[in-house]
Design goal:
The chain is built from eleven helices and 20 strands. It is α/β, with parallel strands linked by helices. Bound molecules: pyridoxal-5'-phosphate.
Length: 378
């Protein structure tokens, strides 16, 4: 059996992106975001490669389940792992998982901090605090900083393992966006408050892909937290592209194959809801559909094969999708050929996301388990 639709994950490109990031932020350590199954690329193989080959020793997950599977599947390797959003500390049975597996919950409110400080088993456990400097999602309130300092001192915890914040607008200009500048300033003030109060900050980080790409908002921190850029795409908006320094290589290539082709004339109805062909041409039926995470919203996107441009026509089915090519392509689009959707030889990922009104993050994370991830080192 062959994998017909598959996501080829080129680990050499991951290495290229990592090396680029190291150049952009030569004094920073990397906490690699591998949440959502490594942005859809397969968290375990990607993190294994990053840890063994790239010497990345810190990983970021979204949920306790993700972090646990990282620990269990990579139990031969040593690294730090953080849970950023769904930490579930209110379920006290999770304490054991955090403690025994040394998974670090990112604390974003005072009651979570109190729980850690007042539970004797966490006495020597690393404390990681996340501050809301303007993202307005999760994060400790800056107004409560004195309370946090008092709590830490009262419990004789004079060192924070990692102090974190997160940029909301890093895909905008870091230099001229006022919100970005205000977040940088607020985080500096927070750090100073802790230091002035005699609390040691072992690690600090705020930068995600957009700010790393612009080399802005990272220098005073020990760490950066790249996600998307590790997988290749830029996260910058088109109008700030010129402020970016990152030349990433796309790690993934989404391939399927052509089940069947047939010639059509203008008006020939195709698939569910009988979408009419715009002119004479040829249809290629692809072996991929929304059952693979290839969304019906992608209808209309331009796709390429053997040098011909076509577009996804009509409604995507659960297991199939149809591409219309103009009549010049007749005889050049054949059944059983491999068809590249995005990646080398296919549609550029940013073009794909623009035309489908999505973002590369979402394209990657949408792919379902029916698409096997195949790892290459070429
Ligand atoms: C807290 C945190 N840090 C870093 C990142 C990485 O962001 P990006 O993928 O834009 O680099 C994320 C991603 O959502 C995040 O939630």
């Amino acid at each position: 059996m062959k994998f017909r639709s598959r996501l080829i994950v080129n680990l050499n490109n991951l290495k290229h992106n990592f090396e680029q990031i190291k150049k952009l932020a030569s004094n920073s350590n990397i906490l690699f975001m591998v949440k959502a199954d490594g942005y859809g690329h397969g968290m375990i193989p990607v993190a294994r490669y990053a840890c063994t080959e790239l010497k990345v020793k810190e990983f970021g997950c979204a949920t306790i389940q993700e972090a646990l599977s990282l620990r269990e599947e990579l139990n031969d390797l040593s690294f730090d792992v953080y849970v950023f959003s769904d930490i579930q500390l209110e379920l006290h049975e999770n304490a054991d998982i955090y403690l025994k597996k040394r998974i670090i919950p990112v604390i974003s409110n005072v009651s979570e901090l109190e729980y850690i400080l007042h539970t004797p088993e966490f006495r020597n456990f690393p404390i990681c605090l996340k501050y809301n400097t303007g993202m307005n999602r999760l994060g400790l309130n800056v107004a409560e900083i004195d309370k946090v300092i008092a709590l830490l001192k009262a419990n004789n915890r004079l060192s924070i393992h990692h102090l974190i914040s997160h940029f909301a607008n890093a895909s905008y200009s870091m230099k001229s966006d006022e919100h970005n500048q205000s977040q940088i300033k607020k985080f500096e003030e927070i750090k100073k408050k802790f230091i002035d109060a005699g609390i040691n900050l072992e690690r600090t980080s705020q930068a995600n892909s957009g700010s790393i790409e612009q080399k802005n908002g990272l220098v005073t921190d020990t760490h950066i937290r790249p996600g998307l850029m590790m997988y290749g795409p830029s996260s910058l908006n088109d109008d700030v592209k010129t402020e970016g320094f990152f030349q990433g290589k796309l790690v993934s290539k989404l391939e399927t194959y052509i089940l069947r082709t047939f010639e059509v004339t203008k008006g020939t109805p195709v698939g569910y809801n009988s979408t009419p062909c715009p002119e004479d041409g040829v249809i290629a039926i692809l072996a991929i559909g929304y059952g693979d995470g290839f969304s019906n919203r992608y209808s209309g996107v331009r796709l390429y094969h053997n040098g011909y441009e076509g577009f996804l026509i009509g409604r995507v089915s659960m297991d199939m999708a149809h591409v219309f090519f103009p009549k010049e392509a007749i005889g050049h689009i054949k059944a059983h050929e491999v068809f590249t959707i995005w990646g080398e030889g296919g549609t550029d990922i940013r073009q794909f996301s623009k035309e489908t009104k999505t973002i590369p993050y979402e394209l990657f994370c949408s792919l379902l388990p029916r698409i096997p991830r195949v790892y290459r080192l070429d």
